[in-house]
Amino acid sequence: MTGQDRGAIRVVLADDEAVVRVGVRAVLAAAPEVEVVAEAPDGRDAVDLVLAHRPDVAVLDIRMPRLNGLEAAAEIRRLSVGTAVLVLTTFAEDAYISRALGEGAGGFVLKTGDPTEIIAGVRAVASGAAYLSPSVARRVIDHLAATGSRLGAAQQLDGLTNREREVLGLLGSGMSNGEIAEHIHVVEGTVKVYVSGIFRQLGVRNRVEAAILAHEAGLIPRGTRPAHGPLPQPGPDSAADP
């Protein structure tokens, strides 16, 4: 049962700067369904608190002592406690983004961005969807293009079935597995099978990369809006909407 099923999204917040923790906690307090259940000044304590509280979301700064945010995300993923990770980042930390994708982060928001993006990001990753601040999204897209990851995946789109392409487009619109299942009238377990197959065929590691690819390939169906917040819109060099 997720925090949203219970009517509350339980959050563990970790940042080594006390003033940042105060600010983020104040932002999250504006969302009545979000509850910060514990705070940590470093990654090691964050992992321990996740294990103790089993929150729905861990909001992690990247640069922290003992364990940094990437190491903490990897440890949380290894623990398999069902806690999603939302990463707090800055413009100076672009090099960390691809690593965080590989460690299972479900979203990225800027500390210096619109505070409402933090709330939107927490809601999204708690539901199993992906979330990127628009400015962060552009950097992820550029990174994937520079490394050839996006190009290599795009070349395999023809290998997807029509249903898989539909699921990828809905995933890219910001829908969770449950929302996709309701939209295409199947059980959630079937959607999980589709998503796993899509990841494998496209060579992507997680929902963030898959969502970006869906946007870049023009797979987002018209009239479909992100469930909890914006993912990157196709750029001027992207394929047109179908």
From TrEMBL:
Gene3D superfamilies: 3.40.50.2300. The modification 4-aspartylphosphate is found at residue 61. It comes from the Bacteria. Residues 153-218 form the HTH luxR-type domain. Transmembrane segments: none annotated. Residues 222-242 are annotated as: Disordered. This is Response regulator transcription factor. It comes from Pseudonocardia alaniniphila.
